[in-house]
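ASSEMBLY PREDICTION REQUEST
Request ID: AP-0331
Submitted by: J.K., bench scientist
Number of chains: four
Total residues: 1344
Priority: normal
Notes: Please return the full assembly, not individual chains.
Input sequences:
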Amino acid sequence: MNYRSLGKSGAYVSELSFGSWVTFSKQADVDLAAELIKTAYDAGVNFFDNAEVYEKGKSELVMGKALKKLGLRRDSFLVSSKVYGGVVDEPNPNQQGLSRIHIYDGCHQAMERLQADHLDLYFCHRPDPRIPMEEVVRSMTELIQQGKVRYWGTSEWSAQQLMEAHSVARQYNLIPPTMEQPQYNMFERYRFEVEYARLYDVIGLGTTIWSPLASGMLSGKYDETTPEDSRINLPGYEWLKKFFESDKGQERIRKTRELKTIADDLNTTRAQLALAWCLKNENVSTVITGASRLSQLQENLNALDVVPALTGEIMDKIEDVIQTRPDPMEFQIAKD
Amino acid sequence: MNYRSLGKSGAYVSELSFGSWVTFSKQADVDLAAELIKTAYDAGVNFFDNAEVYEKGKSELVMGKALKKLGLRRDSFLVSSKVYGGVVDEPNPNQQGLSRIHIYDGCHQAMERLQADHLDLYFCHRPDPRIPMEEVVRSMTELIQQGKVRYWGTSEWSAQQLMEAHSVARQYNLIPPTMEQPQYNMFERYRFEVEYARLYDVIGLGTTIWSPLASGMLSGKYDETTPEDSRINLPGYEWLKKFFESDKGQERIRKTRELKTIADDLNTTRAQLALAWCLKNENVSTVITGASRLSQLQENLNALDVVPALTGEIMDKIEDVIQTRPDPMEFQIAKD
Amino acid sequence: MNYRSLGKSGAYVSELSFGSWVTFSKQADVDLAAELIKTAYDAGVNFFDNAEVYEKGKSELVMGKALKKLGLRRDSFLVSSKVYGGVVDEPNPNQQGLSRIHIYDGCHQAMERLQADHLDLYFCHRPDPRIPMEEVVRSMTELIQQGKVRYWGTSEWSAQQLMEAHSVARQYNLIPPTMEQPQYNMFERYRFEVEYARLYDVIGLGTTIWSPLASGMLSGKYDETTPEDSRINLPGYEWLKKFFESDKGQERIRKTRELKTIADDLNTTRAQLALAWCLKNENVSTVITGASRLSQLQENLNALDVVPALTGEIMDKIEDVIQTRPDPMEFQIAKD
Amino acid sequence: MNYRSLGKSGAYVSELSFGSWVTFSKQADVDLAAELIKTAYDAGVNFFDNAEVYEKGKSELVMGKALKKLGLRRDSFLVSSKVYGGVVDEPNPNQQGLSRIHIYDGCHQAMERLQADHLDLYFCHRPDPRIPMEEVVRSMTELIQQGKVRYWGTSEWSAQQLMEAHSVARQYNLIPPTMEQPQYNMFERYRFEVEYARLYDVIGLGTTIWSPLASGMLSGKYDETTPEDSRINLPGYEWLKKFFESDKGQERIRKTRELKTIADDLNTTRAQLALAWCLKNENVSTVITGASRLSQLQENLNALDVVPALTGEIMDKIEDVIQTRPDPMEFQIAKD
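STATUS: Completed
Returned structure:
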């Protein structure tokens, strides 16, 4: 396993990392979770991703118990949480979003669920336009100053919002965000490649990529029909099913089918190809993978072997199929 | 119950909140306090106000025991204290006012009395011209950075003093005050409406209003004679009695009598009318109500239903009776 | 003529302003330029836009002579220049882009050509990634501090770049940009309406809109065939011709044809409709119009009468035709 | 003549200074103006006050010519202007108020009218809530940095606004206001004595007092009937006439009559008594006097001799008559 620095920060993350998202609690109990974590850990994975909102805290609870069961050295891995949605059902304006109140309470409660004396990475799971940026950046800075959090970051913030956080941090001598957790895959590239382009240098932004398989689509498992056990049949994922059935979704499924030849030629799977493709981008710090079965995790981990095979020639072939290279000038035709 | 943001901060407070001032300890024991808090909480009240000086700490002690008895989730409500007067009788220059010494000790002792691991709001109960503003703002900032306080504010500070605190915070990169607890009611409007006018925008000041009934006067209970059990007959309230008997006091009692017709027409009480009238001002974040009896609390809570009934026409009628709209130019007659 | 504040700055610009772009020097001599400026000025236009690169300085020369001929009070109008492309043919790395060298020399030379003792607005005509942002913002700040420039801004910068300039200004206590000159019209909306959305508040960004007619297309003059005297037949405008002939260009010509009914119903022209449509957006500070004939200028100025006629219903009708409302979520389909 | 420092700044102003307000141009031509200035100057007056709005620039023109005629050393006196109202009749949003545009143009034009290479004091004649405070303070700072202005200040700003300017100056390392020009006299005391109380120390605010005679009332000339040549009969002063005839005005005239005994006992006039009374307040830097006749000026200057006669006993007697000592607690009756 190779390790990459998390942007310009001092933290190093394994190229592949492991996220619990939909799997822990819903599809994996503590024993299975422990087995998955152990396998990843033994393969060199050093970052385990989580969020308060994943299964309303249960995903963190399961991960916390699994980590405890394994008895791994606390200083040998990184664990994260993300604050935004809260864990309770009853509406409480102070326990949602990014106020100092919820940033603090969310952190304390995640630490408790994860049985962790600190969070290595703590993300703002979404932007919260209700809250002054100064309050968000101050609260995150304070948690770092209290030793509860090592690095703070964001997820799905726009380049403007990231710069705004950076600006407030520089203006008030607070700690700027270190990393962003964006979606990035063969089909979703504009934000990562164009909108964020300057941030890797200006902020020194690190990235922890999610959805490298485009909600599983790039694995090819939706080539013909949808497998019964797919998450797209889970309650709450109707939006995903709808998207798969749309014109845009169908076109992507078609392109994914075409990728099979390239994958076959490289003696790999399309899932591995898609993960390796993400890692070819040097602005990616780590690609978060998920798995509800050991075999799936193993397949993902093997993607690392594919990276060196992705020569310029192969990358061009992939581009010919997916045709998604974003145009930085997409929004400008006239000249002044 | 609706919630309003506390100025431009990320905290949300219920439109009506509950303060213990003179009632807890003196007029309400732990059991009654718990009952009052529970009733308010169930109605959506999320902010419980207190101060070290209320009954010299006993009010906080009672509230702490009542909250513990109820076993409410700590992250589901906000609790405050205020520092200034201290809790001991013997004069000690270090345990009064706003030095770093008393701001810290006051905070720690209030947390202990309230059995709270942090204070959501912590107020400077009065300005303290003896103490350099930098020391006040630094001490409050430090308590926030230590995780003991979430937001700090002031009570009965002038606009100049609030701007001075803001200025010091901006100059030395400390945390500016978030909220002020001013008196505001139909009879006392100049400061809130004129003197503070720019602060709601410039500082983003939130406000937690006290004395919405003008020391109870607006409820109409002093219409004819003073009820035996009124606080104005309590020892220590001679100043209030004297004011009620002054010309100014008598004029207010007369106006309060006239408000009865308007309240009757709306099928409400004058107390409810007075509370609802405060809430019509969008710069009010929350109106603190007190109660020593359940029935009184219930009446207060019902004031929320009166707010929508206060149309422009009704507000004009009220103005015709009270005639207290402040003149922003009161202090200027000549032109230059 | 109404005036709008230029973002949160203290400058006020007329809703319609006058830009010389391609017309001065190429299509209008000093006498005609003076006539156009006088007509606009008498109608209340108070901002005359220019740039060093327009006809390589000749546009500013003509405007300078025309203004001098008219003898208008210098304090009764605002004049701008923009720095980036330089005015000489031979390549000189120091007289292009946004180095301190070219920002200074560009300012001095524009002042001379415009015969102006100061520039009211001075724009960075494009972003220049070669130059450290600190140097750009410092240079602009220095020109303001020297009294040569009143407000500085940008043109066609991304939200990220604008925030970066703002961030550098706040970090080093320099002057942030006041305004941006973006393209904005019925067909180009994403950047102005989505990407910039928070900047109007966070930076207080003012906007001086160019291309309100989408390179003239929205006037309807390309409905059937291209008129001989159109700028799309001028040398150097081959890119525009090519765009008009593309699928996207043809679709826009078709939509423009459909707008005719709406314009006819309002007893106005499509050019006026397009200008008025821009002014309905409150984040527009001023719409820059160009004209090479008095009649054309007059038509543009009359667009102001159309604004009040653009009711919500009419705006919906226009939307039904153009169907260009941008989707803020365009780049996100998956959920986390 | 004694000199007092202008607040905590390094500038020294004569205890009495000379302002042109309504007199120059309207009541005094260049020759008379020169005579008045020379007399004041010879008596030690070192500050001559003006404003762009006084007679729409003509007051400055007359003062400029008079100063030139006298040929006084430029470094031996201080001259001021004030920016806000502009000098032209036609409405121009950019040549009124406190934008960078008008602050600059106002300064340049005042310097030209006054024939002065710099302004010693430059005031914001009124607050301008339309303009961001940062723009106001930056513009004033820039003019000082360019050497055009020595000290900047305000006139008739509230304590909150003064603190806001101070706050912005400290936050962005700009120059805070040095002085304020408020109304202050026996009848108008609240702002100067209560609202500003902390500013003399916190900001180090200097004050150049206007209206020391309460629009002439305190001179006693309205004791019986209004003299024909009084300014209250000038067009544009109807507001003043109306005030004099009001209950409040009549009460003041009555009190002024009562002051005659005290003045007589001291062998002085009531005008001199009123000027000397202002100078007893150490927070007054200078009292601006006006005069349209030499004799009037001489009378004012002799007020300096009265100051030592105002013992504590005499001041108490005056207080007994005027009864205007402001109550710092005027707006607070209830206790918390």
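REVIEWER COMMENTS: Chain A has twelve helices and ten strands.
SIGN-OFF: pending second reviewer
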